[in-house]
Design goal:
Elements lengths: L10 E4 L4 H12 L3 E6 L10 H7 L4 E4 L6 H10 L2 E4 L5 H4 L4 H7 L4 E6 L14 H8 L1 H4 L14 H24 L3 E6 H9 L5 E2 L26 E5 L5 E5 L5 H9 L20 H15 L4 H10 L3 E5 L9 H5 L3 E6 L3 E6 L3 E3 L17 H7 L24 E4 L7 H9 L3 E6 L10 H8 L3 E5 L7 H10 L2 E4 L5 H5 L3 H7 L4 E4 L18 H5 L2 H4 L14 H23 L3 E5 L1 H8 L4 E3 L4 E2 L10 E3 L2 E5 L4 E5 L3 H11 L12 H6 L1 H13 L3 H11 L3 E2 L6 H5 L2 H6 L2 E6 L3 E6 L23 H7 L4 H9 L3 E2 L13
Parallel strand pairs: 1-2, 1-4, 2-3, 4-5, 5-6, 14-15, 14-17, 15-16, 17-18, 18-19
Antiparallel strand pairs: 7-27, 8-9, 9-10, 11-12, 12-20, 13-19, 16-28, 20-21, 22-23, 23-24, 24-25, 26-27
Helix pairs in contact: 1-2, 1-8, 6-9, 8-9, 8-22, 15-22, 22-23, 24-27
Length: 797
């Protein structure tokens, strides 16, 4: 089986009109699904962004239809597919006769995935599905660093990327459940949920969190470092004007960095293995904040990168978009493909970023021309339909993945967030960590985000006495995944070959930093530096500006990509009966964030650097404007939305010959922005919001730092997006919870991340260990008991 046919036989109808829907169905197409995209008679509006369209529609087929006058064809298409993806907004599909109840009459095994702006209930339900409006409403514009005071327009589509992943995860989970019980499902997510997926690693509200921050804020610097411990984390300007990202959180990395920089004399050697927690003197603080940046200015980025790699310190250049296409490791991974796009011609773009069963460097088909396959698609409608994985098992209202069992032997965030997302949908996840605990426990908010709803068994896998437990868990699990550096899993005996000898049909997932092999495979990989390497830090900074930390990065991104990969592999196993292996790298997930940016064969970037120098927006009708007493965010895409904005401010837009067309507005962008800016500046924010509500204009007020407010809003607790729990260490904990809704199924009760070894004893008992054996492991520190004696989930299955 090649890496491009994991979803062979799956048929998908893409009725979405937003980028999140197209990205989601694009992921399905990348791994073998037959995706039919329905375009309106005038063509998909997203074709205005040819690089984005080329990436999100590659391998799909296009047919142009009017959903009203061509209803019979649309119904025939629904009968012929397994999945329908739509973005008509709350009630919009029902109004068009394409709601879930309508589809069931046509196809009793259909999976419907709906993507909205802010969900179908709660305070955000009426929010239009526009990236900018969602970021303004949820508060990401307040969190993103800028070259001025906020709010800052998000230069990357954090909500779109997140929603696309969540929609894909939900769809694949529904198909996995359908393979067992044959039942149709309706799953729903939103751009709001997508933004929260990206923010979940930063946000949270715990009574006794030792890293509690000011209300709603995140403390992240683009350069420099902390002031209380031996840690350097940031990006530094080099003599050639380029920036290199540095992180010394690995054991011994701080000392090695100081040696490379010639500053070791300022810091006596430390052998505790916990350098970042060693207090520093005022003079050492000055060295970190002044001498370290000055040292990097003495040589080029290329020279520093070479020195740091040799010293095993995380040092990763922050590159402009598409420069990473030439990185030897990216090429080794097969992460860049060349396609002959019908609009742009030959281009390079980010390719498939998950490798299945070792297959990479696989070709891709370009995006279709408008209505290109209409005749072919119509001709297929009369043929008998071949169903994709429709089982006949028992039907109940449990969560989608209630029968899925996962063994997680990873650490930090980018790997483990994969299984956390699946645990939210009902999967039982056992996390095996060292007796010292996952290193990310030192950053409680991020740890909780990655490990919620899991069980913890804290056992030293290097000790031969743990082997019986490992064998038990591997036999029990459907899937195993980790994100250790290359070679570590082999030393611990948890590599693919070792575990497949125990269970041949295992699904085995690996989320390395750079790749399992290749020239950079053994380099350290940390965020935000991988995303900075792929261009994210330049994209959020605005045109001509120096790069900045991007809150849209690949920690959460690789977690979501890994969840997609695991479910894809599980479906392939259901179809073939064969075990599966997959690999999704940190750098590959970073490329996915900027997959809407391509490069012409001559080297010209296409689709990037859209954010203006002031970080206001990407055009006069997708922009922040300053009011008489604050700010508004305006996003008007359709003619109706543009007309509503014109009425709200008493200006001519489409009636003005200069701005009558999309091309005209693009060509005269500054003039239109000046007209709107003058009108907005004379009005108070509250008055604008009132007028906008009356006229139906898509305008919101950007909220300030919103973490605590969002976490404590009862409406968000009601929708399940936020949980309110108690945990012995942190007291009352409110955090991001469920980001996918599955009507008619039981919502999984949210549990705060487990204590170290909270389920160790129960897990060992279920593996057949006697009380004496368990006592021996606990006595010599090979295992740690977190004090919880409840039955391990492994015993339930």
């Amino acid at each position: 089986m090649s890496g491009a046919d994991q979803l062979k036989g799956l048929r998908v109808l893409d009725l979405a009109t937003i980028a999140a829907g197209h990205r989601a169905t694009g992921l399905l197409a990348d791994y073998g699904a037959d995706v039919i995209t329905v375009e309106p008679r005038e063509g998909d509006a997203r074709r205005r962004y040819p690089a984005e369209f080329a990436a999100s529609h590659r391998g799909k087929r296009s047919i142009a239809l009017d959903l009203d006058t061509d209803r019979a064809v649309v119904h025939d298409l629904v009968r012929s597919v397994d999945v329908v993806v739509e973005s008509f907004g709350p009630g919009g599909a029902d109004d068009r006769g394409l709601g879930f109840a309508d589809l069931l009459l046509l196809n009793p095994a259909i999976v419907l995935c709906s993507i909205t702006g802010g969900g179908t209930e709660g305070a955000y339900a009426g929010l239009p599905a526009h990236e900018g409006l969602v970021n303004a409403a949820v508060g990401t514009m307040a969190e993103q660093l800028g070259h001025r005071e906020g709010p800052i327009w998000m230069g990357l589509p954090i909500a779109t990327v997140g929603a696309a992943y969540l929609a894909t995860i939900a769809t694949l989970a529904a198909l996995y459940r359908r393979a067992a019980d044959g039942q149709p499902r309706h799953v729903e997510t939103s751009l709001l949920d997508g933004a929260l997926a990206g923010m979940s690693m930063y946000w949270g509200d715990a009574e006794s969190d030792p890293q509690a921050h000011r209300e709603g804020t995140i403390a992240i610097r683009s350069t420099g470092g902390p002031t209380t411990g031996r840690l350097v984390a940031g990006a530094f300007r080099c003599s050639d004007g380029r920036y290199i990202g540095i992180a010394t959180s690995a054991v011994g990395a701080f000392g090695r960095l100081m040696g490379v920089l010639g500053l070791a004399d300022a810091f006596p050697p430390d052998t505790s293995g916990r350098e970042m927690f060693v207090p520093i003197t005022p003079e050492q603080r000055r060295v970190i904040l002044e001498d370290v940046p000055a040292a990097f200015l003495t040589d080029t980025c290329e020279v520093w990168e070479k020195r740091l790699v040799e010293a095993d310190v995380c040092g990763i250049p922050w590159l402009p978009p598409t420069e990473v296409f030439d990185d030897p490791q990216v090429r080794w991974n097969g992460g860049i493909v060349t396609v002959d796009d019908p609009e742009l011609g030959p281009i390079e773009q980010a390719g498939r970023q998950v490798t299945f069963n070792g297959h990479k460097h696989l070709p891709v088909d370009p995006a279709p021309r408008f209505d290109q396959q209409a005749e072919e698609i119509r001709g297929e409608l009369a043929r008998p339909r071949v169903e994709f994985l429709v089982g006949k098992g028992a039907v109940d209202d449990r969560a989608l993945l209630a029968d899925l069992k996962i063994l997680d032997v990873g650490a930090y965030l980018a790997g483990p967030y994969s299984s956390r997302l699946l645990a939210d949908l009902g999967a039982v996840v056992v996390k095996v960590e060292t007796p010292q605990g996952d290193p990310l426990r030192g950053v409680p908010r991020m740890f909780r985000a990655a490990q919620a709803n899991k069980r913890s068994a804290a056992v030293d896998l290097k000790d031969p006495r743990s082997r019986d437990m490992l064998t038990h868990l591997v036999t029990w699990a459907d899937a195993v995944h980790h994100n250790m550096r290359p070679g570590v899993a082999e030393r611990l005996g948890v590599d693919d070959a070792s575990l497949r000898a125990i269970r041949p049909d295992l699904v085995y997932g690996y989320a390395p930093g750079w790749g399992s092999s290749g020239p950079s495979a053994r380099r350290q990989s940390l965020e935000p530096h991988q995303s900075g390497h792929c261009g994210c830090s330049h994209e959020v900074a605005g045109q001509y500006n120096e790069p900045l930390y991007s809150i849209c990065n690949s920690d959460a991104g690789n977690g979501m990509l890994g969840a997609v990969a695991m479910l894809t592999a599980l479906l392939a196993r259901e179809r073939t009966g064969q075990g599966q292996s997959y690999e999704n790298s940190h750098i590959g997930a970073s490329l996915m964030i900027v997959s809407h940016i391509a490069r012409m064969v001559g080297g010209e970037m296409v689709g990037g650097a859209r954010l203006d120098v002031m970080q206001f927006g990407v055009g006069p009708l997708e922009r922040l404007y300053e009011t008489a007493d604050g700010w508004i965010c305006l996003v008007a895409v359709t003619d109706a939305e543009i007309d509503a904005v014109a009425r709200a401010f008493g200006v001519d837009i489409r009636e003005d010959a200069r701005f009558a067309t999309w091309d005209g507005r693009a060509a005269q962008a500054d003039e239109l922005a000046d007209i709107l800016g003058a009108a907005v500046s004379r009005m108070r924010t509250a008055d604008i919001i009132s007028v906008a509500s009356r006229e139906g204009a898509p305008i919101v007020e950007p909220v300030p730092f919103n973490n605590i407010t969002f976490m404590r809003d009862p409406a968000n607790l009601e929708t399940g997006r936020v949980s309110d729990s108690f945990q012995a260490t942190y007291g009352r904990v409110r955090e991001v919870a469920h980001l996918v809704r599955t009507p008619g199924l039981t919502r999984v009760p949210h549990r705060v991340a487990p204590l170290v070894g909270e389920h160790t004893v129960a897990t060992l008992r279920n593996a057949g260990y006697t009380e004496d054996r368990i006592a021996g492991l606990l006595r010599d520190g090979t295992a740690v008991d977190g004090g919880h004696t409840a039955e391990s989930p492994a015993a339930v299955r």
